[in-house]
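User: Earlier you gave me the apo prediction for this protein. Now I'd like the version with adenosine-5'-triphosphate bound, so I can compare the two side by side. Same sequence as before, with the ligand SMILES added.
Assistant: Got it. Here's the input I'm using:
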Amino acid sequence: MNTKKKEILRIVNLGLKVDSKTVLQNVNLYIQEGETFALFGPNGSGKSSLLSAIVGNPVYKITSGRIIFKGQDITSMTADERVKLGMGIAFQTPPKVSGVKLIDVLRHCARIGGRSEEDIYRYAEMLKMDEFLERSINYGFSGGEVKRSELLQLILMNRDFLMLDEPDSGVDLENIDLIGKTIRELLERDKKEDERKKSGLLITHTGKILDYVDADYGVILYKGRVACVGNPYDILREVSKNGYEGCINKCLREFPNLNSN
Ligand SMILES: Nc1ncnc2c1ncn2[C@@H]1O[C@H](COP(=O)(O)OP(=O)(O)OP(=O)(O)O)[C@@H](O)[C@H]1O
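And here is the structure of the complex with adenosine-5'-triphosphate:
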């Protein structure tokens, strides 16, 4: 039996600028089919910028390196082309658009994902968003409602590489259960390891989402660089105890060649 996993995402020596500010330097990341990564790091360390670069937001200018997705160099591709290849993203703070109803955006997502009108209503009910369908997207939505709306769009898009930017922030205790279990299912975490086809990259500060989604690896971004890769639960514990620098120093003692390419 061939047990070799397929490569999903390979980021090689990525450098990134926004305006004239360098936000990422020499970032390397390798994700295989079925794997879920948790991305940690202090505020402003470049986590959301990395996700924006992967999905092809043109505001973020790639200054060096390459992004390979499912074996194809996507560094110069548009966001639409990348989504067609199979990636999807739930943003931390998506735009509010007056006059564009949530249902219209969901129909667009469902077309991308080959989902039916019936699916839209079924998943909207599941995520308790059925009463929001006729409202302008994100307009006056609470923090938790924005998260459920983003997740609903992601489900309907039916992609196989999912990026979620802080899906657990600002979510109350009841809704974190709903969101956590939904993401767990989306990333097929209940399937056997070698049967999982979905891969993920989740940004989290508190690690709350990791009570539901048993990520395979944790990565710390620090000052725009990958500073530590390891067990996500060990990283969380170490950061809580000794802060980011303490955790990174420990990681470097254990893996002194982490940043040599
Ligand atoms: N569109 C933008 N315009 C100007 N500066 C930006 C933009 N996006 C990101 N930055 C800057 O890039 C740096 C990294 O920001 P980013 O949002 O990626 O950090 P983060 O690690 O996701 O932070 P947080 O945990 O606070 O969400 C910050 O200094 C931020 O101010």
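For your comparison, keep in mind: DSSP finds seven helices and ten strands in the chain.
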